[in-house]
Amino acid sequence: MTATPDIKTGGCLCGAVRYELTGPPLYQGFCCCEDCRKASGSGYVPFMGYGAANFKKTGEVVAVRHALRNGRVSTRSRCAKCGSLLFGGEYGVDKQHTVYAGTLDDPSFFSPREAIMTGGKPHWAALPEGLTHHEGMP
Predict the structure, then answer these.
(1) Helix or strand or coil: residue 34?
(2) How far apart are CA 130 and CA 68, in angstroms?
(3) E strands of the chain, at which residues?
(4) Beta-bridge partners for 51
(5) I need a surface site. Which of 8, 23, 50, 101 has the fewest CB within 10 A?
(6) CB 76 within 8 Å of CB 63
C-alpha cells in the first residue's frame, strides 16, 4: 500500500497488517477513558474516525471484546501476529472505525481537535494545548 495525498497508510509493528485511509477523518482527538488507557498502557489513545468505506486493511487481526460499565461492548482489533493495537471495531462488520494514530506511517497527518472522557484523565497525562475538552462523551 502506497500513500498518496488522498490516501494515508499505516500498519502494525511487524508489518503483517497494513491499512489505507481515504479522505479526511470524520473526527480526531484523544480519548482518556479507562478502557482506552488500559488497552493502550498510556494516559489516552490518539484516534481518528473513518467510515468503513474509507478504511481498507490487509492482514489478519484479532477482534478483542470488552464489556463496558454502561453495558456497551468495546471491540478493538489487534495484529494477530505481533499484537499491535490498530483500530476500534470489527472489520467487515462495523460501519465506522477508530484508527489509532500511533499506527500511521506518517504521524504528522494526525491533527487532533478534541479530548474526550477527560474526567478520568490521570494527572500525569499531558494533552496538547488548544483542544476542546469533554469530561464525558460529546
Answers:
(1) helix
(2) 29
(3) 7-11, 18-22, 27-31, 45-51, 55-58, 61-67, 73-79, 85-88, 96-100, 114-116, 132-133
(4) 96
(5) 23
(6) yes
Alpha-carbon distance of 73 to 91, in angstroms, equals 15
Side chain identity at 9, as an amino acid letter? T
What cell does 13 get?
509493528
**Is 125 within 8 Å of 115 (Cβ atoms)?**
no
Query: Could you tell me what percent of the chain has a pLDDT over 70?
Result: 96
Phi, psi of 119 (to 5 degrees): -60, -25
Q: What are the pLDDT digits (tens) for 51-96?
A: 999 999 999 999 999 887 778 888 999 999 999 999 999 999 999 9
> What CA–CA distance (Å, rounded) separates 58 from 13?
14
| CATH, domain range 7-133 | 3.90.1590.10
Contact, 99 vs 19, CB < 8 A? Answer: yes
